[in-house]
Design goal:
- By secondary structure, the chain is α+β, with helices and mostly antiparallel strands.
- It has five helices and four strands; from the N terminus they run ββαβαααβα.
- The strands form two sheets. The protein has a two-stranded antiparallel ribbon with strand order 1-2.
- A hairpin with a 5-residue loop joins β1 and β2.
- The longest helix has 11 residues.
- The radius of gyration is 14 Å and the shape is globular.
- It starts with a strand and ends with a helix.
- The model has no long low-confidence stretch (mean pLDDT about 90).
Length: about 110
């Protein structure tokens, strides 16, 4: 389960918790470029590939497309912020309803 902040707020530590708490994932590059990803589709993307969905490990899977075109190499984001979900997020395919409900039941 997530960790607690000094203010008593539960902070997600992996993509499944981000999706359950409706927190969008925003990787921010050193160049300032950022995009917000919908956590449900992002969790399902990582789950299907068998990748580690802990947030420090998730950061290693992202790379900046602007820096890639300028420097000809993949540059990992400087940090990942958790933000409120919105309609303008990058939406990957959502998990099947049966799979999602099974994960939510397992979290409780």
């Amino acid at each position: 389960m997530g960790k607690w902040s000094a203010d008593g707020i539960l902070i997600p530590t992996n993509l499944l918790e981000c999706a359950a708490f409706h927190k969008g994932v925003r990787p921010i590059c050193k160049c300032g470029h950022s995009k917000v990803f919908n956590p449900h589709g992002l969790w399902w993307h990582f789950e299907r590939r068998g990748w580690n969905d802990r947030l420090p490990e998730v950061r290693k899977r992202f790379w900046c497309i602007i820096c890639r075109s300028n420097h000809r190499r993949k540059v990992a984001p400087a940090r990942i912020d958790l933000v409120q979900e919105s309609d303008s997020d990058v939406c990957l395919p959502f998990p099947p309803d049966r799979v999602w409900r099974k994960q939510v039941r397992r979290m409780r």
